[in-house]
Automatic annotation (TrEMBL):
<feature type="domain" description="Histidine kinase/HSP90-like ATPase">
    <location>
        <begin position="222"/>
        <end position="340"/>
    </location>
</feature>
<dbReference type="Pfam" id="PF02518">
    <property type="entry name" value="HATPase_c"/>
</dbReference>
<dbReference type="GO" id="GO:0016020">
    <property type="term" value="C:membrane"/>
</dbReference>
<keyword id="KW-0418">Kinase</keyword>
<dbReference type="InterPro" id="IPR003594">
    <property type="entry name" value="HATPase_dom"/>
</dbReference>
<keyword id="KW-0812">Transmembrane</keyword>
<dbReference type="Pfam" id="PF06580">
    <property type="entry name" value="His_kinase"/>
</dbReference>
<keyword id="KW-0472">Membrane</keyword>
<dbReference type="GO" id="GO:0000155">
    <property type="term" value="F:phosphorelay sensor kinase activity"/>
</dbReference>
<dbReference type="InterPro" id="IPR036890">
    <property type="entry name" value="HATPase_C_sf"/>
</dbReference>
<keyword id="KW-0808">Transferase</keyword>
<feature type="transmembrane region" description="Helical">
    <location>
        <begin position="12"/>
        <end position="34"/>
    </location>
</feature>
<protein>
    <submittedName>
        <fullName>Two-component system sensor histidine kinase YesM</fullName>
    </submittedName>
</protein>
<dbReference type="InterPro" id="IPR050640">
    <property type="entry name" value="Bact_2-comp_sensor_kinase"/>
</dbReference>
<feature type="transmembrane region" description="Helical">
    <location>
        <begin position="46"/>
        <end position="67"/>
    </location>
</feature>
<keyword id="KW-1133">Transmembrane helix</keyword>
<dbReference type="InterPro" id="IPR010559">
    <property type="entry name" value="Sig_transdc_His_kin_internal"/>
</dbReference>
Amino acid sequence: MKKEKITFAQRSVILLTVMTMLLFINVIIWLVILCSQKSMGQFAKIIMTIILFLFALGLAMVLRSWIIHPYLDFAGLFKKFNNGQIYREFMDRAGFVFPGMEEVLNRYDKILVSQRNTRKTKRQSEFLALQNQINPHFLYNTLEAIRGDALSLGMDSIANITEALATFFRYTITDTGSLVTIEDELDNVDNYFKIQKYRFGEKLDIIYEFVENDPDICMLLIPKLTLQPIIENAIYHGLERKSEGGEIRIGMELTERNVLIRIKDNGVGIDDKTLAEINYGLEHTTMPSFSEENKSKKGGIALNNVCRRIKLLFGEDYGIHVYSLTGVGTEVSIILPVVRKESEFFYEGRIHYH
């Protein structure tokens, strides 16, 4: 039979009870000594007896109301929590047991909420992946047929853009919940940019401000579809409204624990009020109320979607922040942990950094 350990709280209650009992006994001894004093008058003895008795009674009541009763109350609270009968009441009241306990419980509560959101997002992603894969080969085969007709007619530009479109769809639709290498993400960006250049011509340009074949960077793992949605935002909200077009620059910095990705454009920029709203949304994107509010928003995979997936996978220390000046351009900063092997970081749907 396993022997139960006496907790710190139990030891504290026992110690305080013993000390109070010893003090109570000491009061009784003093009462006996005072009553045996012949020099003290009868009235004085009665007064001293009443005072000491009231002192002992008050001490016992303080012990009961400040120590024993709260201990029994919290013991019952913990028992109900362990039995699964309560949760929120426990989180609201148990923080007053010890200094710092409230912060510990708040952090625990946030972890639970984050894990629930991760599981919910994973189920939604799996559903969407199944829905999108009902018959993707129909799309691929149709695009290949168009490409074949274009080649047979000598229309190489249409054949090339059709091939890029088929590759882009294949990458986007399959395995939406996985981590991929930065190299794969950059290949998808190249494909997407090829499609956009077919529309905008030489008005658009993309520049990589890092060594593209650097294995220390290119082989790192990041959430799939992290870069392309931000490139899309830069084109449609920054560069498309410029008559002379513009350029997008992608830079990366690697530290011991983090990888910082910067995507800059020289587009029209964002005004201060809108920028503050965007960054507030990115900072609070994992909040359930914020998620429900953004479900009604239409469009493709936007900044909030990318940032939310990053935070759900890696935690609140990671995500996206936007910097912008009206008439100058916009920079989107993405901070991610260094992940080299997917199997070392996944545990029950959540990534842990060691």
